[in-house]
Amino acid sequence: MTIFYDNRTDCEIGEDIKSIIENVITETLVYENYTQNVEISLSFVTNDEIKMLNNQYRDKDKITDVLSFPLGDENPETKEIMLGDIVISLDKAREQANEYGHEFKREIGFLTVHSMLHLLEYDHENKEDEEEMFKRQEDILVRVGLDR
After folding, report:
1. CATH code, domain with 66
2. Is residue 116 part of a domain?
3. For a disulfide at 87, which of 4, 20, 66, 67, Cβ 3.0-4.6 Å?
4. Predicted confidence band of residue 148 (pLDDT cuts 50, 70, 90)
5. Residues 90-113: b if buried by 16+ CB within 10 A, e if exposed
6. Whole-prediction pTM
7. What is the pLDDT of residue 125?
8. pLDDT greater than 80 at residue 52
């Protein structure tokens, strides 16, 4: 597994946060019985940048916490499956951690598993799909010790 990190904020992303992200990604793949070697790009951005991306790619002119851009192509050099890109607003993640009364690292873990499931083609466009996806999220967060 290869994770490319791109931090486009002034906030420092420590090894503890990267470790949580890697554990969540690994556990999501295990939970989903996904056995292929993967490559993921993970970018940390500000609220301003994620709002611009949300408008550009989803036609929604508002701040969001995370965006997922699935790919699924094989990297011809490494033979890894390029699952896609995850973009997390660190500003929004901090706001939500405070709002929900849990640690920042739990929020980053939640946003990562949520986005990973989108990369694996889950969505929450209707009630049934939402229930299935959110159950998987909670199961994975329990497995990595980030449940509430």
Report:
1. 3.40.390.30
2. yes
3. 67
4. low
5. bbbbeebbeeeebebbbbbbbbbb
6. 0.94
7. 86
8. yes
Dihedral pair phi/psi, residue 4, rounded to 5°: -100, 120
Nearest Cα neighbor of 29 from 5, 6, 3 is 3
Within a domain: 148:
no
Kindly state whether residue 16 falls inside one of the protein's structural domains: yes
Q: How many domains does the chain have?
A: 1
Q: How many residues does the chain have?
A: 148
Within a domain: 83: yes
pLDDT computed for residue 21 by the predictor: 97
Q: Please state the rounded mean pLDDT for residues 6-19.
A: 94
